[in-house]
């Protein structure tokens, strides 16, 4: 496969396509603010957050709480407090994939060795702490609006569909943009029903390449894996391989995009800052659209 | 004690002072962007992140990594990946305190019972998921610059010092602002030396009340607890009690502010979005200043 | 309810019925060894261990492993090693319930307050570290053999069934004995099928009282909760309440008893030592029958 | 290095030296019981359990507790309960090393590849679930009594010292024995003082080889690593390499042996059963001496 972005920002680069967000892009993005409405694009995060069957969910433990005081704990100086700890898989809920999350041919983005990601060291290269904050122009490509409803479980979204969605908002993906794709996967789920992680509408490789070649800094979606599931025969996560490894484009999965669509968001100031988790393969985020 | 903000945004409100950030504040904040420089204000987060002795640090485990492939794991379709899980105390590193974190007299902000925060339910009221995103005007009150260097370990910062710091940037805290106080605590630490969590420069109660009465939405600092340690005799976390419980002001602790000062940031667009951790007493964040 | 064992071993006692195992019982138990065959009565413990839907399973993380060396980690002095960490719910797999696990009327066994079990302190009374090692005569009450197969999902096992099972081995529960009840619940489960934790064969309250009045030190079974599920109308875990709280009898749940039956074990030396987990409500164990 | 035990119990063997415990050994061990006194040889296990600086300690979280009820939680059918979860490093406190814990030359005991121990699969070979229960004759080699007090921090214990300790109890290590070595390391620690894990008295390689050649099934000690620390120049954990990898002898570290010495235990029935943690590199245990 081609390795389009390797070397583009230097042999030592671990940030990838977010390098495309220069100060000019930030200034432009800030200038897009009109109404001042801020829309959070994150799922609630809890032990009830859905996970594929082969993965563990989040756990959340209180180390001190109001029950302690009800049971008689002292309150020196009147002070009462609660604190807690989470056991958090980093690819749960709304999260950003770091560039060390996916690769092939034993090489990560920019040619780093896959073997730099280990149990003892965690990711020495391309960890979540290397992802710059994403503060840029956001585009909502609303395929749900385009199709008149959430897409079926295995619908492949191609380049032409994305272009049609762009036409709806009168904008074209460009240098440093964050592109958010609404497939309807999440909003079509029934409350209480088990979530099916084996089928989801998502983009195909050609669409991914078109976005990356357009210069986008980040691709997000309201589904579990950005790309269509099941994969085309003979492939496994082909969009991950192309976007993350070859183009250095971080993915932002599990977004909540219906409220943004309802607020009329098409082109907006977008902000998503991964936690600087050293050597992590991803990070939970609470991305924002500022309209 | 007075309960200045109780009822101000309705009896059911769990968001507190961030309610002060209206659309007008957001628009104004966006208009402050000049150069487009984005400064992250978060510490790296890792098992090496310093913690007080009575608390556990973060743990970080790889569930799959490059070592698996080096050891012979299969790669169907060529796809290789890594994933990981953290055991994360929520008051570690750079984090926002939710309004259920601290209270007194068995009542949280806005009169909710402390007993609504339990092992089984976690925080039913005022959890981190109730904190709105903070996208507003940020002010850096640089007490380090004012005093010519990091403050000593137990320096109390009063209202007048904050006012002097305001004068330096020609701004006054107002409705919906995020105020960030640079004490120098963190930057004065020696690399490799154990961090002393029993002494830190920080604000006193009067300074806190002045900020809250000025209408700020959030108070952040580059120390561990916003307020001076040791506490004044006979008190325990008095600023937490006043700001969080009485005024509903979330605190943003453990910030990294030296790079912002060095970038000349005084008045800027500030963005910090807590993760929507349901029922949590706090959230790690990666706050941003956009200059 | 009566509180049969309260005060029996002093007002400060936190060990309960295992106090019944005196040195005489130990000597007698050791003298039962005939063939020298040792049978482990524990389930394998792994992330695949079945759990009720409302609970989280075990997680198991490698902190260092052979993959690290395959990926190039150094081996000073030739030494290579692996180490790991588990996130382990204490009522998973084969485990012993501590006397602080279940109670009613706000009082634990021997009158300790339920409020001594808190998030901050964990169990100040009757924690797993207070359970003495159980080294005593074991009796296998094989209801499966008695009935000719595993019992149906909601079969209530009464006193008479237990007495009939006793008759099969020519022994009667007595002072300090460990009684193990084979219901067939576990062995009837189909491999790969989801385990139903809402229905299980188990003893009723009268059977439990008969065992406790006989002076047993511990009651074990090959099911999830010792007692029959669903509970009799209007009750919730009535056997737990009676045995643990009123009689101070620890329960040993999730045992594997078929291999013991197949080895001809009826009366034997039984050994089960809870881990001294300070303030814990239970402990995983690997109980042994020595024939 | 020689690989003395490889192939001895077949090419597929993953149990190692505990295979030496035949039924005859078990019967003999049971016959040693005289007084019926049972002595637990385990440390209490808690977040306060000492750990080397580079490792994380145990964490212990209540998922439900008495504080919940004090705070108003419902109690259907009168039933109240508490449950908890531990985050437990498996080489903490009193624990048994599985045969996959230590190796060299990329090969585990019996020639299995080190690369079979991975993040994703955990230990496919020689995990803790492969360790048979150890029910055998125990010998206490009391070097503290021999020397008149706890040994200094870096005292190397050689074969002759072990032989002198054997002479004190009139026994010689033989086929299938569990040998427990009291160095005094733990009992010499001052309460509240930080434990030094860089220096400890322990056996040297010659002593280890003598024990293994004598046919022992297990070697335990009251120190952190069985062997002397610091290591002889140019070596790293040489006793681990020899005993675990070459002889297939599991180690039982962090034992509490003073109470056993005080009870006059020299030759006794010894029982230690690792938890069947699938693919784990070790297991916490509560070993027992029955006198």
Greatest contact between two chains: A-B, 94 and 94 residues
Q: pLDDT average of chain A, as an integer?
A: 97
Oligomer: homotetramer
- What is the CATH superfamily of the largest domain in chain A? Putative cyclase
Separation of the first and last Cα atoms of chain A: 39 Å
Organism (chains A, B, C, D): Roseomonas haemaphysalidis
InterPro entries (chains A, B, C, D): KFase/CYL, KFase_sf
Protein name (chains A, B, C, D): Cyclase family protein
Pfam family, one (chains A, B, C, D): Cyclase
Structure in words:
4 copies of one chain form a homotetramer. The first copy, chain A, is α/β, with parallel strands linked by helices. Chain A folds into 2 domains: 17-51 and 90-290, Putative cyclase (Glucose Oxidase, domain 1); 52-88, no CATH class. In chain A, 18% of the residues lie in helices and 22% in strands. Chain A has 7 helices and 17 strands. Chain A has helices spanning 23-30, 66-70, 143-147, 159-169, 205-213, 238-246, 258-262, and strands at residues 38-40, 59-64, 80-81, 83-89, 95-97, 102-103, 117-118, 122-123, 134-142, 156-157, 178-182, 202-203, 218-221, 251-253, 267-272, 282-284, 288-290. In chain A, the strands form 4 sheets. Chain A has a 9-stranded mixed β-sheet with strand order 1-17-15-9-11-13-14-5-16. In chain A, strand 7 and strand 8 (122-123) form a beta hairpin. In chain A, helix 5 runs parallel beside helix 6. The longest helix of chain A has 11 residues, at 159-169. Chain A is globular and about 65 Å long. Chain A starts with 22 loop residues before the first helix and ends with a strand. The model of chain A has no long low-confidence stretch (mean pLDDT 97). Chains in contact: A-B, A-C, A-D, B-C, B-D, C-D. Chains A, B, C, D: Pfam families: Cyclase. Chains A, B, C, D: This is Cyclase family protein. Chains A, B, C, D: InterPro entries: KFase/CYL (IPR007325), KFase_sf (IPR037175). Chains A, B, C, D: It comes from Roseomonas haemaphysalidis.
């Amino acid at each position: 496969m081609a390795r389009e972005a390797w070397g583009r920002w230097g042999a030592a680069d671990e940030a990838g396509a977010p390098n495309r967000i220069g100060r000019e892009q930030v200034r432009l993005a800030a200038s897009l603010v009109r109404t001042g409405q801020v829309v959070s694009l994150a799922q609630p995060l809890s032990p009830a957050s859905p996970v594929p069957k082969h993965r563990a969910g989040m756990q959340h433990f209180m180390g001190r709480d109001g029950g302690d005081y009800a049971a008689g704990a002292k309150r020196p100086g009147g002070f009462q407090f609660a604190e807690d700890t989470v056991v958090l898989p980093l690819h749960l809920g709304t999260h950003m994939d770091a560039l060390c999350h996916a690769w092939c041919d034993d090489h990560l983005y920019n040619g780093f060795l896959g073997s730099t990601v280990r149990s003892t060291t965690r990711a020495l290269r391309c960890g979540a702490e290397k992802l710059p904050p994403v503060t840029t122009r956001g585009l909502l490509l609303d395929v749900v609006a385009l199709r008149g409803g959430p897409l079926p479980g295995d619908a492949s979204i191609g380049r032409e569909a994305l272009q049609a969605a762009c036409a709806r908002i009168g904008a074209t993906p460009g240098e440093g943009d964050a592109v958010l794709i609404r497939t309807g996967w999440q909003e079509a789920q029934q409350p209480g029903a088990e979530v099916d992680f084996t089928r989801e509408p998502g983009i195909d490789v050609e669409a991914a390449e078109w976005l990356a070649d357009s210069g986008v800094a980040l691709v997000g979606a309201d589904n579990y894996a950005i790309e269509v599931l099941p994969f085309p025969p003979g492939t496994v996560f082909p969009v991950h391989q192309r976007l993350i490894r070859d183009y250095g484009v971080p993915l932002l999965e599990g977004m909540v995009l219906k409220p943004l669509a309802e607020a009329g968001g098409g082109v907006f100031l977008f902000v998503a800052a991964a936690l600087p988790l050293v050597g992590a393969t991803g990070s939970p985020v609470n991305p924002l659209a500022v309209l």
